[in-house]
Design goal:
Blueprint lengths: L1 H4 L3 E5 L3 E6 L3 E7 L2 E4 L5 E4 L1 H4 L9 E4 L2 E2 L2 E2 L2 H15 L9 E6 L5 H14 L3 E6 H8 L10 E6 L4 E7 L2 E8 L3 H16 L1 E2 L2 H11 L10 E8 L5 E7 H24 L3 H10 L1 E4 L8 H9 L3 E3 L6 H10 L2 H7 E2 L2
Parallel strand pairs: 1-9, 9-10, 11-17, 17-18
Antiparallel strand pairs: 1-2, 2-3, 4-5, 4-6, 7-8, 10-19, 11-12, 12-13, 14-15, 15-16
Length: 337
């Protein structure tokens, strides 16, 4: 009866974006994990897309907060408010019972952090909460054969963490989680522009620059973008031209760290499973996987075939949604606090 009168939810509670899948309806929410609140009253002004527009543009009485940091809860109260808002947006008001919720979390999450995620979801209106490791969810969402006795390798480059894992028989054989991902790349661009040009730019501008001209390897025809910011010397607005070569230089150290995590995982993978990965290749997912020619860079450094998932931004959400319909699979991949 509960199934008939509740709407179960699958959530990718990411550092950069939160995606909510409603059973029977599909993806209902796909918005930035940002909340704008009034400082004095802690009352919410905006959530998601509307709050992101306010980043770097708020008066002193309002602050735009990212309540998730490195894939885990940094601000419990604001996370609860954000989840409550997304739950309300995703659910049908006529549904009587609270939903079951499956949430993707980083593979290196601590028991305390797991409890924080569960409690935030329960307080926001969940009936029961199940956690699944993000690389496992991404692998399921990418369509990898995770239940078979063979090795599959997934690299999920999100906003706060990059998760690298080898999966076999519905379990993670070996995994590495590093706190170098999309947000780190954005901040690296901010620092590079500040250091080289004495120009101060915001993270939204850096993210746009990364998408517009960023690349992991040299391009046949290098790209150029116009960049606007505040001159740190004279304090006035200034516009400069910046090239894809410069952005690649800025990102190289962080991209090397991601490749090193992949190589370390391969080195520690049992030989039989390593042989499977040679045949199948490496699957990459997450927003960071969309950097131009990142697949080429990984291939050059590992000599393995690299496949970008069909829908890299939604892999974790799609993976968590699939286990809602498969209780046997959920029992195998669920992690406990």
């Amino acid at each position: 009866m509960l199934k008939s009168f509740s709407q179960d939810l699958a959530i990718d509670l990411g550092t950069a974006n939160t995606v909510v899948f409603v059973k029977g309806k599909g993806i209902i929410v796909n918005e930035p994990s940002i909340v704008a609140v009034y400082k004095k009253t802690n009352r919410i002004l905006a959530v998601g897309h509307e709050a992101k527009k306010m980043l770097g543009k708020t008066p002193g009485s309002i602050v735009a907060i990212r309540p998730m940091k490195d894939g885990v809860i940094a601000d419990f109260e604001v996370t609860e408010l954000m989840l409550r808002y997304f739950f309300k947006k995703a659910r049908n008001r006529r549904i009587l019972f609270k939903p079951r919720v499956v949430i993707g979390v980083p593979s290196r999450i601590t028991p305390v952090e797991k409890k924080a995620v569960i409690n935030a979801a329960l307080k926001a209106g969940a009936r029961s909460v199940f956690l699944i490791e993000e690389p496992m969810a991404a692998a399921i969402g990418a369509g990898l054969p995770i239940t078979e006795p063979s090795g599959s390798m997934i690299v999920d480059i999100g906003g706060g963490t990059t998760e690298v894992a080898v999966i076999s028989l519905s379990g993670v054989v070996f995994s590495i989680s590093i706190q170098i991902a999309g947000n780190t790349l954005d901040q690296t661009i901010v620092n590079y522009v500040r250091r080289k040009y004495n120009l101060d730019i915001g993270e939204r501008t850096a993210e746009s620059l990364k998408i517009e001209v960023g690349s992991a390897v040299p391009l046949e025809e290098e790209l150029t973008a116009e960049l606007k910011g505040r001159d740190l010397v004279v304090g006035l607005p200034r516009t400069i031209k910046i090239t894809s070569t410069e952005i690649r230089e800025a990102l190289s150290e962080n991209l090397d760290a991601i490749v090193d995590a992949i190589k370390t995982t391969l080195e520690r993978t049992p030989p039989e499973l390593a042989a499977d990965i040679v045949d199948k290749g490496i699957t990459i997912a997450g927003g960071g996987s969309l950097i131009r020619h990142l697949d080429t860079l990984i291939h050059q450094r590992t000599d393995l075939r690299v496949i970008r998932a069909a829908d890299p931004l939604l892999c974790v959400a799609l993976g968590t949604s699939k286990v809602l319909d498969d209780l046997d699979l959920l029992s195998h991949v669920c992690v406990h606090a």
